[in-house]
Amino acid sequence: MSSVLQLIIEGERLDSAQMAQVLNLSEAEVESEIKRLKAEHVLLGWRPVLNPQCVQEDIIRAVIEVKISPERDGGFDRLAARISQFDAVESCYLMSGSYDLLIFARGADLREVASFVSERLASVSGVLSTATHFMLRAYKEQGHLLLSPNEGGDKPVVSP
User: Fold this and answer.
1) 61 and 33 in one domain?
2) Could you tell me the sign of the dihedral formed by the alpha carbons of 16, 22, 23, 24, in that order?
3) Is residue 156 part of a domain?
4) In the chain, which residues have pLDDT < 50?
5) Does 90 fall in a domain?
6) How far apart are CA 143 and CA 13, in angstroms?
7) Which pLDDT tens digit goes with each residue over 56-69?
8) Which partner for 29 in 17, 25, 73, 104 could form a disulfide, CB atoms 3.0-4.6 Å apart?
9) How many CA atoms lie within 13 A of 89 on its CB side?
10) What pLDDT, in 10s, does the model give residues 85-96?
11) At what angle do helices 16-23 and 27-39 cross, to 10 degrees?
């Protein structure tokens, strides 16, 4: 991975002086607002949207549906918080429908993700079942189309 890309992933895109100029505020006001947003846990970090096919990282991503039994006096929250602490878990959401938690996980290869699910996740007390779906290709990420210009750029036909 290039050092510039690594810096973008780990850092901020604009510094406070640049933000102040864009927003017509003082640099101190911008820094104060960023500090407040971080302290109140509104701003948790900065993350660019990458096209996984271009980065060519050997990372496997999976979506895992998890059925859990809610704990007495803790409901789903305590168990979801415990599962969220695993390093392999990128995101964890409480869902409505046929399963309780939706987990986005990653690993170096299929075996690592499968091992995480079978040995770590499924063994957590309160986990009733899991269903793992491996992501094969991304077409859109956080509102950004990932298709190359020559790939199906036609918009869907809208009929009256």
Assistant:
1) no
2) positive
3) no
4) none
5) yes
6) 18
7) 667 899 999 999 99
8) 25
9) 19
10) 999 999 999 999
11) 110
d(CA 67, CA 126): 9
User: 3-state DSSP helix/strand/coil percent for the chain, to nearest 5?
Assistant: 35, 20, 45
Is residue 116 packed enough to be buried (19+ CB in 10 Å), middle (13-18) or exposed (0-12)? buried
Q: In 3D, which of 50, 39, 41, 44 has the Cα closest to residue 1?
A: 50
Residue 78 belongs to some domain of the structure: yes
For residue 68, give the amino acid letter.
Answer: I
Which amino acid, one-letter code, is at 159? S
| Token representation of residue 51 | 């096209």
Residues 70 and 119 in one domain: yes
Whether 87 and 20 map to the same domain: the answer is: no
Domain that holds residue 7: 3-39
